Amino acid sequence: MEFLVRFETTLPPGMDSEEVGRLKTNERKRATELRQEGKLVRLWRVPGRRAVVGLWKAASTTELHEAIASLPQFPWMDVTVEPLALHPQEL
Amino acid sequence: MEFLVRFETTLPPGMDSEEVGRLKTNERKRATELRQEGKLVRLWRVPGRRAVVGLWKAASTTELHEAIASLPQFPWMDVTVEPLALHPQEL
Amino acid sequence: MEFLVRFETTLPPGMDSEEVGRLKTNERKRATELRQEGKLVRLWRVPGRRAVVGLWKAASTTELHEAIASLPQFPWMDVTVEPLALHPQEL
Amino acid sequence: MEFLVRFETTLPPGMDSEEVGRLKTNERKRATELRQEGKLVRLWRVPGRRAVVGLWKAASTTELHEAIASLPQFPWMDVTVEPLALHPQEL
Amino acid sequence: MEFLVRFETTLPPGMDSEEVGRLKTNERKRATELRQEGKLVRLWRVPGRRAVVGLWKAASTTELHEAIASLPQFPWMDVTVEPLALHPQEL
Amino acid sequence: MEFLVRFETTLPPGMDSEEVGRLKTNERKRATELRQEGKLVRLWRVPGRRAVVGLWKAASTTELHEAIASLPQFPWMDVTVEPLALHPQEL
Amino acid sequence: MEFLVRFETTLPPGMDSEEVGRLKTNERKRATELRQEGKLVRLWRVPGRRAVVGLWKAASTTELHEAIASLPQFPWMDVTVEPLALHPQEL
Amino acid sequence: MEFLVRFETTLPPGMDSEEVGRLKTNERKRATELRQEGKLVRLWRVPGRRAVVGLWKAASTTELHEAIASLPQFPWMDVTVEPLALHPQEL
Amino acid sequence: MEFLVRFETTLPPGMDSEEVGRLKTNERKRATELRQEGKLVRLWRVPGRRAVVGLWKAASTTELHEAIASLPQFPWMDVTVEPLALHPQEL
Amino acid sequence: MEFLVRFETTLPPGMDSEEVGRLKTNERKRATELRQEGKLVRLWRVPGRRAVVGLWKAASTTELHEAIASLPQFPWMDVTVEPLALHPQEL
Q1: Which fold does the domain F2-79 belong to in CATH?
Q2: D11, G36, J31, J37: least surrounded by Cβ within 10 Å?
Q3: Once rounded to an integer, what is the mean pLDDT over residues G2-24?
Q4: Which fold does the domain B2-90 belong to in CATH?
Q5: What residues does the Muconolactone isomerase domain cover (chains A, B, C, D, E, F, G, H, I, J) (predicted)?
Q6: Which helix (H) or strand (E) holds E84?
């Protein structure tokens, strides 16, 4: 199943820059793993914002949730998940 | 997978009352079939409105779409689908 | 009577991690009690968020309020309550 | 239990004026009955609109729904129901 | 004149608990006075929230404002005032 | 008491142009009367729309409602009323 | 450049069924051409609605507009276009 | 003074096609006049919609309103006007 | 030209009370000057809130912006400006 | 391609004033460079707010994103980007 997943990350203002750096590196690493697992299919930037839209694949919404929640920046992410149904023209 | 599905049906004002009656009968029949198939699990009324909220089950969003679209009043239904993920406390 | 109750919990950023741990343990304990009392019937996660949707039962909205307010994380919860009416097809 | 119920009635433009008159008379009659049954407690007009806000009482949301749905103009009413919980200062 | 007044109070996170206690006691005292003055007529809780809906009476919106602003927690209250007009069925 | 009253009028598409003309003439006449009664104080156009914002005066919201409802185009008006309280700098 | 394009089509209620049939056939034909031109990349159904979300490609927003406006059902489509920027992880 | 003016035109469904053609021709003619008068400065299409955004100039909001209201399709236009203030970097 | 200007002021929680007092005094002084300049015409309180609605006059939106920005509390004000056009009935 | 870009900047309350001064100087410098590159075409102030609307040009949304993200105050900016399509009357 496919989903459109939007998220915007707002780290706490006072967070120390080293911690921010480590988080971002781990985030990229985790995102790469999710690509290899076939869960994260495509990623775009929302122009002008620190936000992204992604095409994700998962066997269920529960699996999708666990994949998103595995991202290191998850505690500071504002996420909306939009389920997609197959269009007959794609068959 | 489980979904919360809301819909409000607005039939065209001029529709002839016999047609309305037939539609509603077929709607109930189809809903009963969907229950027997395990797709429609629970149905509630939104108090004060001609709208319902239902707990649905489907193997995928595509299957869910086809189930909803099979309802005779589908062309006049305003539907929102909310995907639900399993909560660990339910395991 | 049945209600759909949504809530998202945002603990203050500076809260010490032990306090957070204790709150979460007590929250799970209280939720289990509410299940045994028949008030909390089903719980789902909103995919991608630190939010839940639950099916609750209470004899009145006042009783429902007291049950929700008894959750340890209540001071930091953003809650919306949706009343549900019985649908004739469920009789 | 008490509820705040808002509704705005929009009759179809082409409806013949006699039918409108009969509906309004029956509406007032039914409202009076609902008062006598203790279900409709107070009614206010939303200033400037053909809309009302009412304080209603019912043993359950299902009973409330049936009371509202018994109003002759129900098919043309846009209704929102807000559940109210008892405030400790009122005990 | 009658008004529906909603408010939700959010005290600053760091406020010392004694100060919070004193504020809440004074709030209850002031609310009781407003009842005796006939300004605060009925109060309900919004189920699940730290918010209230109240039926208020005042000779003018200015008098209503002064009554609400006299509540000790006013600086931290998010308030909406809805004016109500008399319904002919109430005469 | 003073109120900001916004309204946008949408006459039914099929209304015959003579009827529209008569309505508009009567509307202007009634508006002039309301000015003489001191109820309609100032009127502005919302630039680009067939909508107006007005400063109104009335002894109560009920009196305000009756004044607005006395406008010939009332059945086709979408109105919002905003109550205003006196500002101390105006005393 | 890539865009997320959502649209929901609402044909006029009275439209004769043959005309509806012809429109839908031409719509599918045009959509196929847009795929061959590489403009329409992926299409999904919004579960439960007569609406679609699509991933589109165009050299400019003007070219995108002309492609969407070339769809036979365009006069009855409610469209929103969301521009997407390339994400560095996709390079 | 400069303004951003958005509008979307929805002609009544039953309007006869000749009348539609005449309206559109007159609309273009009037728009050209407004350009010559320096009132309409730039016009863009909202991609995917039958809507436009324009940069307009007028000595006052009243003059702007009269210019917009002079467009033949004004009775069927949904318009929003956004006032713009000069930015110091433009001096 | 006339404008309806709404603003709500939220001073930072930790601001020292003397600084708050000085700001409020200077705010009143500046408001009085703006009245003398004919820019601030009328001011009302939004009942129940720490917010105001004002009728302002300015030769342009740029002049209006500078007048509002000259208020000492401007950095903490949430402002919306609504342009008003002259209504023919006011001529 | 042209875009309407809105942004409102909210610097953290505790930021030291020298840092704020440096940021604003660099912001003006960067904005001037973007003008010279032809990316920032026109800039207006939203009257009454610390917000701007700008007309921008870029070969793609990705290029636009990079231009906006190059502004020193980008981490504290709330941005919305609206894509514009060419209007035939502008050819």
Answers
A1: Alpha-Beta Plaits (3.30.70)
A2: G36
A3: 94
A4: Alpha-Beta Plaits (3.30.70)
A5: 1-89
A6: strand E77-86
Tokens describing residue A89:
């023209």
Is residue F5's pLDDT more than 90?
yes
* G4 vs G41: CA distance, rounded Å: 10
pLDDT per residue of chain C (91 residues) written in tens, 0 to 9 = 999 999 999 998 889 999 999 999 999 999 999 999 999 999 999 999 999 999 999 999 999 999 999 999 999 999 999 999 999 988 8
Q: How many CA atoms lie within 13 Å of E75's alpha carbon, on the beta-carbon side?
A: 8
Q: Cβ–Cβ of G43/A83 closer than 8 Å?
A: no
CATH 3.30.70.1060 fits E2-86, yes or no: yes
Chain A: residues touching B (Cβ < 8 Å): 1, 3, 60-62, 64-65, 81, 83-86
Q: How far is Cα B40 from Cα B30, in angstroms, rounded to an integer?
A: 10
CB-nearest to A48 from J5, J12, J75 is J5
The predicted-structure confidence for E38-89, as pLDDT tens digits, reads as follows 999 999 999 999 999 999 999 999 999 999 999 999 999 999 999 999 999 8
Q: In J52-69, which positions are buried (b, 16+ CB within 10 angstroms) versus exposed (e)?
A: bbbbbbbebbbbbbbbbb
CA atoms within 13 A on the CB side of G72: 15
Of the CATH numbers 3.30.479.10, 3.40.50.300, 3.40.50.720, 3.30.70.1060, which one belongs to the domain with range H2-85?
3.30.70.1060
Tokens of A23: 């988080």
Rounded distance between C-alpha atoms, residue J60 and residue B57, angstroms: 42
Read off the pLDDT of each residue in F36-61 and give the average, rounded to a whole number: 97
CB pairs under 8 A between A and C: 22
Predicted ipTM? 0.93
Would you state the CATH architecture of domain J1-12+41-86?
2-Layer Sandwich (3.30)
The chain B residues in contact with chain A (CB within 8 A) are 1, 3, 60-62, 64-65, 81, 83-86
Confidence band of G13 (pLDDT split at 50, 70, 90): confident
Interatomic CA distance for residues B12 and A87, integer angstroms: 27
Q: Is the pLDDT of residue D55 over 90?
A: yes
| Mean pLDDT over each residue of chain B, to the nearest integer | 96
Return the residue of G nearest to J59 by Cα. G60
CB contact under 8 A, A82 and G53: yes
CB contact under 8 A, J65 and A45: yes
User: Cα dihedral angle (B51, B55, B58, B62), rounded to 10 degrees?
Assistant: 30
Q: Where are chain G's structural domains?
A: 2-86
Residues of A in contact with B62 (CB under 8 A): 1, 85-86
DSSP states of F27-69: HHHHHHHHHHTTSEEEEEE-TTSSEEEEEEE-SSHHHHHHHHH
H helical segments located in chain A: 17-36, 61-69
Chains that touch G (3 or more CB pairs under 8 A): A, B, H, J
Q: Which residues of H touch G (CB under 8 A)?
A: 13, 45-50
| Nearest chain E residue (CA) to F66 | E85
CB contact under 8 A, G60 and J1: yes
A63: nearest CA partner in chain B: B85
Q: Distance of alpha carbon C33 from its chain centroid, rounded? A: 12
User: What residue in J sits closest to I62 (Cα-Cα)?
Assistant: J47
Interface of I with J (CB under 8 A): 3, 5, 7, 12, 61-62, 64-65, 68-69, 75, 79-81
Q: Do chains E and F touch (3 or more CB pairs under 8 A)?
A: yes
- Taking the CA of residue B13 and the nearest CA in chain D, the distance in Å comes to 8
Q: What is the pLDDT of residues G30-74, one digit of tens each?
A: 999 999 999 999 999 999 999 999 999 999 999 999 999 999 999
Overall CATH class of domain A2-11+19-85: alpha beta
